[in-house]
Protein 1
Amino acid sequence: MTRTNWRCTLFLVLVFVELLGTQAYTVTTTNGVSGDLCPSSPQCLGDGKAICVGTKCRCQAPENLGIGHFLCHRSNEKFCAVFNDPEIRGFDGSTAFAPMSCKFKATHLTLPLCNTSDPDNVVVDHLGGFCDVKVTPWGKRRLGKTYIQGIEVRYMVMYKGIIYHHLSRVIADATGGTYTFQESTNRVPFGLPTTGPAESTVIPDIGRIYTDYDNTDNFARLIAEMCGVEVGIRGVDSVLSPLDRTAGVYIKVNQDCKPQYLRPDLCLCSPPIGKGSSLTDFVRKLSKILERPVSLNVAIFFKIIKGTTAQIFPGAAPALQELMDTAIDCSATKLVKGIERCIFILHEIKFLKCFDKSKNLQQAISLLSLCLLSICDNNEFACKDALQVVQMCRARCYGDNHDGQKYFIVSPKVLECLETAAVVE
């Protein structure tokens, strides 16, 4: 069986399991005890976690570091956050942007078992076992932008020779200040989607893996007591301004638990400094391969679509898996060139709003896949088809009124699929 056929078979198996249905546990929260309202900032976290100082929300002791309107943490913790449109804040403090509605790997961690009941005096048990934690969020569209809608967190814990599996999926939505979370779980060893109701996993002597719902700040927080890892998600409001309360997902890791950050080349969250290759290192790597500068935005998108995360989640665009398969089979040199030529399909807001009004961006992703295919396979026919769609969209939405920035939605040569192909002018 070829690699492509194997991926196709696995994808169909996962789709079939997904279609069997998920027994979701639904939790509804409201704004609860609101935090400070702070000028020029989203609402601060409540319960004394943060207060408004001047124009910014400041985290308070003992968790006196972080983003006061989204998460606070202790000095022995590091975090990655993916929020808003979305902005990615790495474990190393780096920032980047990646508007995309696909599922992507945020981080993959392995840690020895550790007792964090006293966060300032963590006890690490190197001999007792280990935790393996993978976090994969996905987004949805709102008002032409992309916000995190759901996460899957996969835990594997080994203790006294016994392996425990726990996969939690949480989907977060909000309407007019009322937040709804749907949670489902799976505790089988094979990587199938969640199909059962929400559950906690108890590991004798060392704690449990569970989800806590915060009625003050409207977060679902997935906690593994023996791993020193906490993952939180808050949905975007479909009615109120997304600027009022920051939506997104965060991953908080206690560094005293001695985490290792696996496969940073496939994860969007850069590890802490000195713990693995950063986004900047990845940009340098691609630039060296191509023997010319590669932009950060292109490098991030390369990571997203070159990853191996199966695009199985509620509301996923069918074209997503086709896009990923195209990228996986494409050489690095051609894929970078393809992204540079084709990424406007998702990044040019005027074009995107005109061309695809769906929530999952099916049309746009399908066009992007076609555009990349034209370069990866040197397919002149695919290039011409993609070019024709872009030209038709521009004519339909803007007519002949191309008066500079207002109507000119595609920059010259941005769709130069082949060296000799036609160019959008």
Note: DSSP finds nine helices and 20 strands in the chain.
Protein 2
Amino acid sequence: MQHQPGQFFARDGRHRELVAVRAGSRHSSTPSVVWRKPGDLWRSRCCSFEAWSRWAKGAQEIDPANLALTPAVVQFVEDLGYAGVCLRTGRGLCGVKSYLHTCAVVFNIGCEEHGGRYCYASLAEAFHALNHWSGAGDPPGLWIKLMSRSEERPGPGGNG
């Protein structure tokens, strides 16, 4: 198995993201691996390439581009802070996440970013919208704003 930065693994209920593979450092010529837990963007850990290979050998690789909704994937995405994780046609992996002033239906969830989010005034509204949305068009309800990489626009519940 070739190890590349950005790969995600699950094993025994633990989830890891491979951040970097280092050929060596000024202190050691031994290759090392930098990894972190999902959602833990500010704290990474380092181990020898050999130790990482032993751990990853028994782990399941999680491919964000070709996800099946397995318990490991659901747990991985929940560890990122999402709830109600599901797949929606054309929108990929979706879930609900609380933000400072709103709650959102988030679509095309990846490990460090997402495709976009529909902001709602309450958690109940966001869950209701996610549960009644097929992935086509906009979700139901009075969403306040759509925020995505390619588009930003007010919704039916927005103030203009």
Note: Residues 49-57 form the longest helix (9 residues).
Protein 3
Amino acid sequence: MKYKINIGSILLKSSNFLALLISFIIAIFIQDINFGTFIALGALFFYYYLPQTNHMGIKTICLCGLVGLFSFLLISTTSFLPWLTPLLLSLICSVFYFYNKLWNLKNPGPFLLVMIACFAGVNNALNPYIIIKSLLFIVLGIIIALSLALVNEFIFDFFGFEKSIDKTKPMKIRISRIPSNLLMRSFFYEFAIFLSFYISKSLNLFHFYWAVMACSAVLQAESMPTIFKRHRIYLISTMVGCLISYLVLMMPLSLITTMGLILIFNSLIYWKMATNYLVGNFFTTPMAILFAKLSSPVINDTSILSRLIAIIIGTTIAFITVYIVSYLKNRLVS
């Protein structure tokens, strides 16, 4: 049985690598790297796939993909109103966070949703043609991820590889009783996302959405001890990641070299994140820097400092938010 599980693990890691590789090949083929990064962004939705009974992994990646596309479209069409972007982003992510926890879905949570929505909110001068074109490229990336997930699902079923037990609760939009604790956490999650977006953008940080993504990642923790541990780990791993990024940016980076390094870092993240959160996060910073370099080749080592500041802001806001939630929860109980 261990042999089968190992084969399944290798299959998933290979598929994650292929999803990004195929998106990069298409980007090179169409000779448009800026829009090609949107294909890669959609391909990252493979992270939402986990082989589960009742084909829940396929349902999850479809659900998250649709929510991601809706978020991108909504934020893009309203990004000409800067004050509205953080409000919509935080509201969408809060609702997704609420139902993600309510339904007990196994996935990275709103993290990629935050990323795709922030990409839409970065540019406040998008025209309908660019919005539609960007959306179609994201759809293509999600189709690549979904296709590979279906191949994995078929292989797991055909060879009888062991899947995770589906513990998802019934997916009902209307609920008769709203858990007060979850409602409070969702509200503060929304507030933290809004605050991290607003502060980082007000400081004119390069790629300010890094702060929002860091905040979202840390807020996935369920308790105060876990959030404190994640906050510490995220800061340590970011410092190591900044050092790796500095060494990488010293290299003569061609387009192929940059894509190759992204593929390597993405594979290391997918491989280690679930088993060692600290080591897995070593590679998120260089991957984020190189992704930014694809669309903006003039990026230099000053972006590393912006990344570090954004992570400190995002994780600190998340830490304070969870502390307040824990305090209020204890007061209510007492």
Note: The mean pLDDT is 83.
Protein 4
Amino acid sequence: MALSLKMADNKESHVLRDEVRSNSLLNAILPIDVILETQNTMMATHFSKSPYWQSLLIIGQSQVQRNGLLFQAALTHASSDKQIMYVMTKEFTRIPPTTHSLPNVETGNMANITFKYCQEMKSLEELLIGFCTIPNELLPDVLVVNGLNEYKRGKGPLSQFHYSSILSLLSETAEYIGRRKKTTIMLYVSLSLLLALTVEEQKPWIELFKQWTHEVWILEGNSNRLVSGNIHIQFTVLGSNIFLRTVSKID
């Protein structure tokens, strides 16, 4: 059954209660037990419909939230003995918050996560291209790239062309690794758009990202809400814990 309720903006919302497993990569981040129809119409490339990879992108201003959500994805997959490569520009100053009831920071999980630090976009590109020379048994099962906007390329912010280039390389790399390992590689990416962009100005950027990513989720301000299309997921961050509150479909 779906529980109907009214939102503050008078749009009707349905809290999803169907007890079926989610087909979204988000279920590695939050304990979601409903089917989420979030598949984007991606750019028609030879690898976009390949079964060898699946991807999720989180866009939001809050670094704490982005760090916590992507770190949880790494922990969840690591708990299943998957090998994770976690790429970011610098080390965490503190352990990000993790999701209540999902795998947490344990020695066994952390042993399956390899952290790589790249200050510039060129270093990230070299890291990805370098997978061509790595033996199959050393290739990751899950690739996480945190804060894509933080990788420097020149003095100015990344352009749409730059984002298209790196997301294309990330997509092709994940598909390439999956094909070599004969499995489905999971790719998780986060980034933050310029604060100066209005909601309308953000739309063409988001549409661009959808061409290169299976799922795109927007972190709305400081509201602790993830949005993809008409799906709204509310969560709470309390200290070192993230708690799932509701999964709603806005009509």
Note: The first strand starts at residue 3 and ends at 6.
